[in-house]
Amino acid sequence: MISRIRKKLTLLYSVIFGFFLLGFIGIICAGIVWTVYTDRNEEIKLLAKGIAREQRQTLLDHRRNPVQPPAEMSIEDDHDISGQVFYYVLDDQRQLVKVDMPVPVLRQAVYAAITEWTSSRQTKLLTIPLSTENTATIIVAEESVFSGSTFLGTVYVGRDVTAYARVLMRGIIILITAAILFFVLAVFISYYLAGRVIVPIEQSIERQKQFVADASHELRNPMSVLLTSIEGVEMDKDNVLSPFSRQILADAKDEFTRLKRLVNDLLTLARMDAGDIRVKKENFCLDTVAEQVIRSLRAAAERKRIRIQLKATTSVKVCADPERIHQLLYILVENAVKYSHEKSKVAVKIERSATGVEIVVTDNGPGIRSEHLEQIFERFYRVDESRSRAIEGSGLGLSIAQAIVNAHQGKISVDSSLGEGTQFIVSIPIN
Ligand code: ADP
Question: Distance between CA 421 and CA 72 in Å, rounded?
Answer without folding.
Answer: 87
